Amino acid sequence: VNFNGCKWVTDKGLAGLARNKRLREVRIRGTSCTDKSLYSLAQFCPALEWIAHADFSGRPKFSDQALKCLRDACIQRVIC
């Protein structure tokens, strides 16, 4: 699923999508998602293989703790 640049995509919306345990790829650059979204993905999407979240503004969007939680929860992953 590609939500890049969709500022109206929020934690609540992504949490609903995350309940699809077969979700394998999500792109959330330029959305309104926060750490809560990463925790939802970590909790409900163990098969997640790819998440694109990088913010090139120079300000980290997600905490290291949330990224580590997602990394540790997913079986196969590429996080960029």
Automatic annotation (TrEMBL):
SUPFAM superfamilies: RNI-like
Highest taxon, organism lineage: Eukaryota
Name the UniProt record assigns to this protein: Uncharacterized protein
Organism, as annotated: Meloidogyne javanica
